[in-house]
């Protein structure tokens, strides 16, 4: 009963009506550039779908809200939900976090990840989670999902009170009519809440939250929102110029998304943004990336 009540409270917090679509008056940043950049995208392509959210981690105040309840494809961002379940299992005495898992036929998927290029036929569970955090490793994701099970990830997601965010399937090179159309979906308001809760140590418990943040702090993809933060993509686990970041990106054809937690010398913010667009040209793709970078610039102004 206690767990059910906690789930209701989480859902209530996520669904609480937001205030105005920008931060307060005065000297505090108001994300005007973000609204202009995303608005320009929509004018150029009416079929484009945009969602964004930013929430102050300490106060819980929403400082940016753009269609943040809409569920959009988020590509690899959904792998965070797998990492949360893996981390939670570390607390189970029957689970072996350093147990060895083998590469198996049919699990390998192209594109993201290092393990497919390594000679090592087997790695510990903890190392596979680190690979998912660092390079969004597709092979490591699928091997972990074979161990954990997609149903367990879904159950964990529901227990967190998330209703529009989910990891839907294994990673696949091609998706047939019987497969989920997307790897994952998510709403910006839920994803920003999730990163804020991780930063506060509220997901499962503080140790499990810190473990997930540790894996995500290895992320080498700073190509979207976080391209504005000036950090070293290969080494940013510590604070650099009073800037500390943990993030996860999701990239697929026609999808660019990122969620994360950013701390500066004045404030800390949890954020998420997802754009689904017609990826018909490199120009269209670069416009989307530039708009996400503009969001990053406004976030930097907010935390510093």
From TrEMBL:
Organism, as annotated: Salinibacterium amurskyense
Start and end residues of each Beta-lactamase class A catalytic domain: 53-273
BP term (GO), one: response to antibiotic
Name of the protein this chain belongs to: Beta-lactamase class A
GO molecular function: beta-lactamase activity
Lineage, broadest ranks: Bacteria, Bacillati, Actinomycetota, Actinomycetes, Micrococcales
Composition-biased stretches (Basic residues): 10-21
PANTHER family: BETA-LACTAMASE, BETA-LACTAMASE-TYPE TRANSPEPTIDASE FOLD CONTAINING PROTEIN
UniProt region (Disordered), positions on chain: 1-26
Any Pfam family hit: Beta-lactamase2
């Amino acid at each position: 009963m206690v767990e059910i009540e906690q789930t209701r409270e989480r859902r209530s917090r996520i669904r609480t009506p937001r205030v105005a679509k920008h931060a307060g008056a005065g000297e505090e940043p108001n994300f005007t550039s973000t609204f202009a950049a995303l608005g320009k995208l929509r004018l150029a392509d009416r079929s484009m779908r945009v969602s964004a959210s930013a929430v102050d981690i300490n106060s819980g105040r929403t400082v940016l809200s753009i269609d943040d309840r809409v569920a959009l494809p988020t590509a690899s961002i959904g792998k965070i939900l797998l990492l949360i379940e893996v981390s939670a299992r570390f607390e189970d005495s029957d689970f072996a976090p350093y147990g060895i898992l083998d590469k198996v036929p049919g699990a390998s998927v192209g594109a993201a990840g290092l393990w497919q290029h390594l000679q090592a036929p087997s790695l510990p569970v903890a190392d596979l989670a680190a690979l998912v955090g660092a390079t969004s490793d597709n092979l490591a994701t699928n091997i972990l999902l074979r161990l954990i099970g997609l149903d367990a990830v879904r159950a964990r997601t529901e227990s967190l009170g998330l209703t529009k965010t989910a990891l839907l399937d294994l990673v696949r090179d091609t998706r047939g009519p019987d497969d989920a159309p997307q790897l994952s979906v998510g709403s910006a308001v839920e994803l920003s809440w999730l990163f804020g809760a991780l930063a506060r140590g509220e997901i499962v418990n503080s140790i499990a939250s810190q473990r997930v943040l540790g894996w995500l702090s290895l992320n080498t993809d700073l190509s979207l929102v976080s391209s504005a933060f000036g950090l070293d993509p290969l080494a940013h686990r510590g604070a650099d110029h009073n800037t500390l970041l943990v993030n996860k990106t999701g990239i697929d054809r026609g999808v660019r998304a990122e969620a994360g937690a950013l701390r500066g010398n004045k404030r800390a913010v949890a954020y998420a943004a997802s754009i689904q667009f017609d990826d018909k040209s490199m120009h269209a793709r670069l416009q989307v990336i530039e708009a996400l970078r503009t969001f990053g610039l406004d976030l930097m102004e907010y935390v510093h």
